[in-house]
Amino acid sequence: MHDVLTVSGLYKTYASGHDALKNINLSIRRGEIFALLGPNGAGKTTLISIVCGIVNPSQGSVRVDGHDIVRDYRAARALIGLVPQELTTDAFESVWGSVSFSRGLFGRPPDPAHIEKVLKALSLWEKKDSKIITLSGGMKRRLLIAKALSHEPQILFLDEPTAGVDVNLRRDMWQLVRALRDTGVTIILTTHYIDEAEEMADRIGIIRKGEIILVEDKAELMRKLGRKQLTLQLQQHLKMLPPALDAYRLELSDDGSELTYTYDAQVDRSGIATLLKDLGDAGIAFKDLHTTQSSLEDIFVNLVRGGQ
């Protein structure tokens, strides 16, 4: 798949001496949903701001569909839509006027049909003539998304787009994101709602202290770093496990009432049946069992803490 965004050897050091980004190398594929995850202060917004031409890099390059973000700024920036975290809008402008003006800023000719389509998709059509100052916080968030889509960008950045908004907006926005992706638009999002990344993203990137520590297809990441656990509640407490079961690396609870078996669901599908047979052969009976699976949030927390 063709890369639509390429970041190479990117550094950002502020005047205070703070290294916000350190040697970022990242390629984003056309038409994918890419989730960039990281704790506060990790460098997510700085990276987005550099790609969008808001902040200058200290070193390195960014190319948007072949256009250098510094040398060919106008062409590169015209391909990008940005939904920022902050609710900054022209309070006394109308919704229609604000979105139409945003389109004109990028040199695009008037297209009322496109503006209407965007406003309807975001449930803003009935508010098209309303002054922005009269809108609720959720409606203002919808407006920021509409403004970002006004010039028909090929790459859409969503920087914490659903922070503090209602469930309806989250649902509407993710429906819109899927529809945009289906038309070939590339979506890059940062979010604190890791369940959103788990549901929506094709690939996951994790940034920590200004460095990209992992980029992986979501399914592959879940397969490689996710794990399943089978917990068995024993009929009789055990003081220790028989040596015949050492190969399973079972964990015995402190009170001897539970056994936990951790396994890779993709590889060890037949391992459970064998384990249960070997437990029976060892005279160990259980009265109940249940399984749990690690989520993307578990994986994220473990990686950010420095674990594997």
From TrEMBL:
One of its GO terms (molecular function) is ATP binding. Residues 5-234 form the ABC transporter domain. The keyword Membrane applies. The keyword Cell membrane applies. Keywords: ATP-binding, Cell membrane, Membrane, Nucleotide-binding, Transport. This is ABC transporter-related protein. It comes from Leptothrix cholodnii (strain ATCC 51168 / LMG 8142 / SP-6) (Leptothrix discophora (strain SP-6)).
